[in-house]
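Here comes an entry:

___
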Amino acid sequence: MSLPRRHAAPSHLARVSLELSLGNANRARWLWCAALVGALGAGAAATDAYWRQRLAPLQRQAQSLRDTQPLLDAVEQSRLQLRVSQARGQELEHQIDSLNKSLHECQEELTFFRKARDGKVRPARSTTGE
């Protein structure tokens, strides 16, 4: 015979299916992931701003170097033109010296011929005047 249990647990409680709800846990994980992605984005933006600030003087310097390259080329071209002009000037000085030497020789010859002519003419006058 079976005795009725007075304090026995009802049998329908054992048949209740348990559902483990991850709604709050999933939401917390998604919020944590979103916060992590946001922090990484903010960190990347801050790093970008920092490096832009640090590299700005170097970029200006690089730009000024690019701007000075045509000027350096012009200076080099001017130096080459100066050297060519100096060489031409020296050549012209040599030519002038040569022409002055030739002129001096011609003047000496002319003086010699004048003296020879005057020397011949004077004795002839002196002989004819006798």
In short: Helices lie at 23-128. The chain has a mean pLDDT of 82. The chain has one helix and no strands.
